[in-house]
Amino acid sequence: MLPQVPRSRMYVAAAVAAVVLVSVAVVLIVRNPSGPANAGSDSTVAAAPSSTATPSEKESTSSSDSADDEGESSEGNRALGLKSVATTSPGVTARLARIDSVQATASLPGEIGGPALAITVKVKNQTGKKLDLALGVVNAYYGPERTPAVSVASDGEVPFPASVADGESAKGVYVFQIPEQARPVRVELDLGNGADVVVFKGRPQR
Length: 206
Hints:
- The chain is an alpha+beta fold and 206 residues long.
- 19% of the residues lie in helices and 31% in strands.
- The chain is built from three helices and eleven strands; from the N terminus they run αααβββββββββββ.
């Protein structure tokens, strides 16, 4: 007949066994890297995007207001007075011989009648040879915004001759529709063949 174990000892033994089981379970959970205890510490957290731009971003997104540097002419040449004498190339000089106020009559498509300027351009050749003027071009602009003046070729315009002999001068008359109140006036002369573009600028007397 087996000896009878007191109930108090049985309770103690059961409690010890429960503590051992709990300890073993805790050790297993701690050692398991995929367990819930390590899920937060081992996971990678993406950094939140910063709302502050880096210096390079600030430079690339900043708008640069490049001021329109209005030189004396669009080609970079210094503008001369309306009464000046300009050298377009060695041995070749040009000037505005006359600027007359006229009332132009338009007769060709695109022309505009009304107040206009008849600009007489005189070119002198001292190159030692004949000077080709077939490619000569005269343009005019008016006002602070350099509005292109419309040519009224059908009313009094006399283009340059095809050429001018050495030692001689040649004239051309060019008519442009320009409002009476428009100031200042710019006249650009390009004789072609590599000559410099000459710019005359001023307020003509009407």
